[in-house]
Design goal:
Helix content is 31%, strand content 27%. With 687 residues, the chain is an alpha/beta fold. Among the domains are: 112 residues, ATPase, nucleotide binding domain (Nucleotidyltransferase, domain 5), CATH 3.30.420.40; 136 residues, 3-Layer(aba) Sandwich (Rossmann fold); 84 residues, no CATH class; 109 residues, no CATH class. Strands 13, 14, 15, 20, 23, 24, 29, 32, 35 and 36 form a ten-stranded mixed sheet that branches. Strands 3-2-1-4-11-12 form a six-stranded mixed sheet. It has a four-stranded parallel sheet with strand order 6-5-9-10, with helices on both faces. Helix 11 crosses helix 12.
Length: 687
């Protein structure tokens, strides 16, 4: 059997690997190995190859997503990085936008820059806002900076000059000079990493790229070599935070684009499920071992953004993290996963997350040395998880250890009472995050179909849906490894943005068209490396606003050169988007465009799934187990079903637990369950 495809997602707790060969799918969950992440990944690959009865040479495609870049930023485990900028702008990374994410907290602290002040250097040079040279680059000063960087033993360098998005020549000259002085040290240019206006966000993104580049380059080269040594001849692709995939060399150059790669795969997975069900409005709910992610999907496409924050430090509040200007699937991510640690603070309040037990040592019930109580411990004590069937039975869970950890939270409450409180708090945290995200996007949450995936999401989806007023929840096949499956559906794609300011009444069409053609050609060159013979799709966007405003809206451009008269069409598109977002327009105000973006993509791949015949029948369980119902605070007998035995058309009513290798689905008493033609569990709230 040939033509196999592998998707692998390294998470904070588990590494998920999926192999598709023809109509067959095989999946594995392996505890992530922090010292050498590729070790768990390769162990999972070998396991699946053995199950499928094929060899490495039969694999035609390998797609990988990882949290390594994210973790390096959050945990500050990146390379010793130097930053070179325009004279007078040494402290931009420290000053930021000078905004406060909490107006009334006098002790508010912003996250410190990735590069401390003694590793930030300046050189005389200056470009005007139109890209013209006001002060030439001072090479004598740059030579002194090169010596300081060498003495400081930096492992990576970021260069960010003022207005370099309009003219990259000074940055390119500086990079050539420093490369000759600092042999083997990678250099990131803001004009390549994020060629957009707003110097703080551009510098922050470039520094983040340089900070994680040596770590990611070392890992990706090790993995690439290990796969080649193992007999794999297929290309290795990396999942991007924008929802596309790219080649290893591009991932090594721009590793900051991998920061949200795993969640992006999950969004693609949920979007495919929504299209298959003809559901126009989806809430994708991904809960793994470390975090929970919520993403809105409309008309089969996840919402996207061109900026987000990583490593938020203050209760996940906007403005408390490091800003990154890269294309990304729009989502909210909170520290609420199966491994999230519960603790009582100094005033006696129970809190869950954002700290996670991860895989080393893991939750207390893993029996690997963990002693702090987690969400998984609470789920186990409440009866939601079968101790012997967890993660496909790789290792049994120890309920006694979980009870000891939960009881250690204090007071006189039982372990079961603490477990109930932990689950209720984490469910309310996720519901609150979804509500806020809906308000920020101007979207109604309760009208959506929830698609739940990730190792822990099916256990919490029904309760979360009740809190949000959602009437339908879908748990698709392979939900426990949904992000890895999503990788196999992703297209080879790449996006490039370029800032260039014009009023919407612009008459210099030649200059705008030349810019769009240039970045289109660059994006096509990247995609063409991985899909040289594919028919490529092209999407063009402009980011516009009313003059004087601080935020832009994306408007769609035709995939052709702009012509005289297109301005009226673009004004109509902008005003429609503005009306949708804000409920009104501002007639007569001029409109300005700040940034232009082009996305080029090859068609997505993956197995074509055909619906099975549906034979409606009501089934009864032969096995029951007691599970503590969170809403009623009662121990209820839950029917137990093996998912592999369920057939399209089967129906039953909760409460129930549906077990499978990579996860379990908890059905609360309020829901009626049916199995659809594709094998998805569909929970609908009973009238």
């Amino acid at each position: 059997m040939t033509g196999a495809r592998i998707g692998a997602d390294i998470g904070g707790t588990f590494t998920d690997v999926v192999l598709e060969s023809g109509a067959e799918r095989y999946a594995a969950k392996i505890l992530t190995t922090y010292d050498a992440p590729e070790r768990a990944l390769l162990a999972g690959v070998r396991q699946l190859l053995g199950q499928a009865g094929i060899g490495p040479g039969d694999v035609e495609l390998f797609i990988h997503g990882t949290t390594l870049a994210t973790n390096a930023l959050i945990e500050r485990r990146g390379a010793r990085t130097g930053f070179v900028t325009t004279a007078g702008f040494r402290d931009v990374l420290e000053m930021g936008t000078e905004s406060r994410f909490d107006q009334y907290d006098i002790g508010m602290q912003k996250p410190p820059p990735l590069v401390p002040r003694h590793l930030r250097f300046t050189v005389p040079e200056r470009l005007a806002a139109d890209g013209s040279v006001k002060i030439p680059l001072d090479l004598a000063s740059l030579a002194k900076v090169a010596e300081q960087l060498r003495v400081a033993e930096v492992a990576s360098v970021a260069i960010g000059f003022m207005h370099s998005y309009q003219n990259p020549r000074h940055e390119e000259q500086a990079a050539e000079f420093l490369a000759a002085c600092l042999t083997g040290v990678p250099i990131s240019l803001s004009s390549q990493v994020s060629p957009e206006m707003r110097e703080y966000e551009r510098f922050s993104t470039t520094v983040a790229n340089a900070y994680v580049q040596p770590v990611m380059a070392d890992y990706l080269r090790r993995l690439d070599q290990a796969l080649a040594a193992g007999g794999f001849c297929c290309p290795l692709y990396l999942m991007l935070s924008s929802g596309g995939i790219t080649t290893v060399d591009i991932a090594i150059r721009f590793p900051v684009r991998l920061v949200e790669s795993g969640p992006a795969g999950g969004a693609i997975f949920a979007a495919q499920i929504g299209r298959r069900m003809a559901a126009d409005q989806i809430l994708a709910f991904d809960m793994g071992g470390t975090t929970a992610k919520i993403c809105f999907i409309d008309d089969g496409k996840p919402h996207t953004s061109h900026s987000f924050e990583v490593a938020r430090t203050h209760r996940f509040r906007k403005g408390s993290g490091l800003p990154l200007r890269i294309p990304v699937v729009e989502m909210v991510e909170i520290g609420a996963g199966g491994g999230s640690i519960a603790a009582v603070d100094r005033v006696g309040r129970l809190a869950v997350g954002p700290r996670s037990a991860g895989s080393e040592p893991g939750p207390a019930c893993y029996g690997r040395g963990g002693t702090e109580p987690t969400v998984t411990d609470a789920d186990l004590v409440l009866g939601k998880i079968e101790p012997l069937g967890f993660a496909g039975g790789q290792f049994p869970l120890d309920r006694g250890q979980a009870e000891v950890a939960l009881a250690g939270l204090g007071r006189q409450e039982t372990a079961a009472a603490w477990a109930l409180a932990v689950c209720e708090i984490v469910d309310e945290m996720m519901a609150s995050a979804a509500r806020v995200h809906g308000v920020e996007q101007g979207l109604a949450v309760e009208r959506r179909t929830m698609v739940a995936f990730g190792g822990a999401a099916p256990l919490h989806a029904a309760r979360l849906a009740l809190k949000l007023g959602i009437a339908r929840v879908v748990v698709p096949p392979a939900a426990g490894v949904g992000s890895a499956v999503g990788f196999l559906r992703a297209p080879i794609a790449y996006e490039i943005s370029q800032s260039h300011y014009v009023r919407l009444e612009f008459d210099d069409l030649a200059k705008v068209n030349a810019l769009l053609d240039r970045i289109t050609a660059a994006a096509r060159a990247v995609v063409g490396r991985g899909a040289p013979d594919a028919v490529l799709e092209e999407r063009r966007l402009a980011f516009a606003r009313y003059c004087g405003q601080g935020h832009e809206l994306a408007i769609e451009l035709p995939a052709r050169d702009l012509c005289a008269g297109d301005q009226a069409m673009l004004r109509t598109i902008f005003e429609t988007a503005y009306q949708t977002q804000y409920g009104r327009i501002l007639p007569g105000l001029p409109i300005e465009i700040l940034t232009w973006r082009v996305r080029v993509a090859a068609p997505g791949g993956g197995a074509i799934e055909t619906p099975a015949a549906v034979n409606p029948r009501r089934i009864e369980a032969t096995e029951f187990r007691p599970v503590h119902d969170t809403k009623s605070d009662r121990l209820l007998p839950h029917a137990v079903f093996d998912r592999a035995s369920l057939r399209p058309g089967d129906r039953f009513t909760g409460p129930a637990v549906i077990v499978e290798a990579a996860t379990s689905t908890l059905v609360t008493p309020e829901f009626e369950v049916s199995i659809d033609a594709f094998g998805s569990i569909v929970m609908e709230r009973a009238a």
